[in-house]
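for the recovery benchmark. tokens below, seq after
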């Protein structure tokens, strides 16, 4: 697998006054896709609650290249671009591609795992998180931290 791919469906509420997808909707799509991917890899919300950890973000950035309109057919491709061997720190990239395979936007997030009881970075990284991120497809320019 080269990436997790999801076809997006836009709602009226995803649009801005210029009738294209509003900037914050991109972040919402990225966050939803990350959670769906983790769930599909067995790292469910219930598992995270039971084991008292969850993902946190240090940085979230979107580069907008082409506007997206409500009727556009867009596919989001998601993969890891950086990760420590113990999966304690990672970067995930979401590319929004149109039907012509042109990049409309790219979201990059840098994150880690938080111990939700101690309210600090989880150490060691929970085994299930290591397993899930090891399955995650890697970008062509993947960097091991």
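predicted aa per position
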């Amino acid at each position: 697998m080269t990436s997790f791919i999801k076809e997006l469906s836009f709602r009226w509420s995803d649009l801005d006054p210029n009738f294209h997808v509003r900037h914050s909707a991109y972040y919402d799509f990225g966050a939803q896709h990350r959670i769906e991917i983790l769930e599909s890899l067995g790292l469910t919300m219930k598992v995270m609650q039971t084991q008292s950890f969850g993902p946190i973000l240090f940085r979230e950035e979107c580069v907008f290249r082409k506007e997206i309109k409500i009727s556009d057919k867009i596919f989001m491709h998601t993969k890891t671009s950086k990760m420590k061997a113990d999966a304690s720190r990672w970067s995930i990239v979401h590319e929004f591609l149109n039907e012509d395979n042109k990049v409309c936007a790219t979201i990059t997030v840098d994150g880690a795992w938080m111990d939700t009881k101690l309210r600090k970075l989880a150490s060691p990284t929970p085994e299930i998180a290591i397993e899930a991120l090891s399955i995650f497809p890697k970008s062509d320019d993947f960097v091991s931290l």
